[in-house]
Design brief:
With 137 residues, the chain is mainly alpha-helical. It is 67% helix and 0% strand. It is elongated, with a radius of gyration of 24 Å.
Length: 137
């Protein structure tokens, strides 16, 4: 919807229409199913109307996790829950870097080459596989 007073008026009209549909007397079957869905997802429907950049599908998310799913299948998963968590965190860092247009290898390399104190702060909740001694700068 175009910005401005017309948009606000159309949104109010749509919300009133949705509420009136939710209160209608309907017969059992498809009409009742639709009414229940409108009631259940009222806030979500309005969110899409009020936020035009919000995508109505999850295709982007599905495309983003597809490589992870393929990797998990090819590697037969992680052997432990801790390993799965570490892989998830690593992939989260990589994908976040990509979304922010940062080089993931450069970011991770910088994190690894940091001093021991900084490295502990970056990965404070992840047990490291090796003991690292502080580096002298």
């Amino acid at each position: 919807l175009p910005e401005g007073r017309d948009k606000e008026k159309q949104i109010r009209t749509l919300k009133r229409t949705l509420k009136s549909i939710a209160r209608m007397q309907v017969t059992k079957g498809k009409a009742e199913t639709l009414q229940k869905r409108i009631t259940k997802y009222h806030d979500d429907i309005c969110r899409f109307i009020e936020t035009p950049d919000l995508e109505w599908h999850n295709n982007r998310a599905e495309r983003q996790i597809r490589p992870l799913v393929i990797e998990r299948k090819n590697s037969f998963g992680s052997d432990t829950p801790q390993g799965a968590e570490r892989v998830s965190i690593l992939h989260s860092v990589i994908e976040t870097c990509k979304l922010q247009k940062n080089d993931p290898l450069q970011f991770i390399g910088h994190a690894v080459s940091s001093t021991f104190t900084n490295l502990q702060n970056v990965f404070k909740d992840i047990p490291l596989p090796i003991k690292m001694a502080p580096q002298n700068s």
